[in-house]
């Protein structure tokens, strides 16, 4: 009997040790990094900058997989249903990770807090309000006056219903008492294409998507959200400076499916913090208007809880709806 018990324990030993061994050698193959937004917007360049550095640190390719749709819900749901083995990372974006909790309610196909293990915050960026150069306005006040003209029928493009740009525009409508028609797209990239072609007059997006275009004179920036001006656009006033209390910012973080081994979570956290603190990544993000802001997993979880609560209030104030 003792021999049988001993053999049984020996037979189980490799299985018991497997997770620890796997974590020690992780990663052994390429890693998928899901970006839940369409190519060409704010999120994709942030994901690619981080993925490149993580590839160097982890010794395996980290491949960005952009899966836009439904305000980031499609790509986020894909990540939530992935195996928790460390080979699927998600760029957590404010819309699917916080805003959509209130907009979609019970229809949201995942729980941001239960279905994901936090790794680190990456950055926070303001929303930028831009107008097409053909629109005869140079300030937010001039835009409001134009929108109040009964003959004016202004529309705005966003990366989709429930995105930060959508909420900022709806808050602007409420605060300024104006009407703007929302035209949602499947990401900042498609929205920006329509905006530049003149199909929409106003655009809401993050600095990385419009900074170079603004410098080239292909669009005119009127205001940014947030409490202070963004360093990459120091001459552009905030909504608050213009008398409009709109303090809503976008943010990006790194998460993995819940159940990912603790050792792998720790490895990914260390690599992410190292990447965000490296001059290569930090300088690139700063030039994009997305200053790096690494955090601990615990800090990120607390941040997510607070943001979900905050955006529930913002959605109610803006009376935002899913188009």
Task: Provide a descriptive summary of the structure in words.
Helix 4 (94-104) crosses helix 11 (297-318) and helix 6 crosses helix 11 (297-318). The chain has 323 residues and is of the alpha/beta class. Helix 2 links the parallel strand 1 and strand 2 (62-66). It has two domains: 31-125 and 250-318, Bordetella uptake gene, domain 1 (D-Maltodextrin-Binding Protein, domain 2), CATH 3.40.190; 128-224, Periplasmic binding protein-like II (D-Maltodextrin-Binding Protein, domain 2). The protein is globular and about 65 Å long. It contains eleven helices and ten strands. Helix content is 45%, strand content 18%. The longest helix has 24 residues, at 2-25.
CATH topology of the largest domain, by name, is D-Maltodextrin-Binding Protein, domain 2
Classified by CATH, the class of the largest domain is Alpha Beta
Q: Span from first to last CA?
A: 68 Å
Structural class: alpha/beta
Largest sheet: 5 strands, mixed
| CATH homologous superfamily annotation of the largest domain | Bordetella uptake gene, domain 1
The parts where pLDDT drops under 50 for at least 5 residues are 1-21
Assigned CATH architecture of the largest domain: 3-Layer(aba) Sandwich
β-strand percent reads: 15-25%
Spell out the helices and strands N to C: HEHEHEHEEHEHEHEHEEHHH
Shape: globular
Q: How many strand segments?
A: 10
Provide the number of structural domains: 2
- Oligomer state of the chains in this structure: single chain
The whole-number mean of residue pLDDT values reads: 89
Strand order across the largest sheet: 2-1-3-10-4
As a whole number of angstroms, the C-alpha radius of gyration is: 22 Å
Helical element count? 11
The level of helicity is 40-55%
């Amino acid at each position: 009997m003792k021999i049988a018990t001993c053999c049984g324990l020996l037979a189980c030993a490799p299985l018991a040790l497997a997770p620890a061994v796997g974590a020690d050698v992780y990663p052994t193959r390429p890693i998928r990094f899901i970006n839940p937004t369409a190519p060409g917007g704010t999120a994709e360049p942030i994901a690619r900058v981080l993925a490149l550095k993580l590839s160097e640190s982890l010794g395996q390719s980290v491949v960005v997989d952009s899966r836009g749709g439904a305000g980031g819900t499609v790509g986020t749901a894909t990540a939530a249903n992935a195996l928790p083995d460390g080979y699927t990372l998600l760029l957590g974006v404010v819309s699917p990770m916080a805003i959509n909790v209130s907009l979609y309610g019970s229809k949201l196909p995942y729980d941001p807090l239960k279905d994901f293990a936090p790794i680190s915050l990456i950055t926070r960026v303001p929303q930028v309000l831009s107008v097409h150069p053909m629109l005869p306005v140079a300030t937010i006040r001039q835009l409001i006056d134009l929108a109040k003209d009964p003959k004016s029928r202004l529309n705005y493009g966003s990366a989709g219903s429930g995105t930060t740009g959508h909420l900022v525009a709806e808050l602007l409508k409420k605060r300024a008492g104006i009407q703007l028609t929302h035209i949602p797209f499947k990401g900042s990239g498609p929205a920006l294409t329509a905006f530049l072609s003149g199909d929409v007059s106003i655009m809401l997006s993050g600095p990385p998507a419009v900074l170079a275009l603004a410098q080239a004179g292909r669009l005119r920036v009127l205001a940014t959200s947030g409490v202070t001006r963004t360093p990459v656009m120091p001459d552009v006033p905030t909504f608050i400076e213009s008398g409009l209390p709109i303090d809503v910012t976008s943010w990006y973080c790194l998460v993995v499916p819940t159940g990912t081994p603790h050792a792998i979570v720790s490895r990914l956290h260390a690599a992410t913090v190292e990447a965000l603190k490296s001059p290569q990544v930090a300088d690139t993000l700063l030039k994009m208007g997305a200053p790096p802001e690494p955090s601990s997993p615990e800090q990120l979880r607390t941040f997510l809880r607070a943001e979900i609560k905050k955006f529930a209030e913002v959605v109610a104030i803006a009376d935002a709806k899913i188009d």
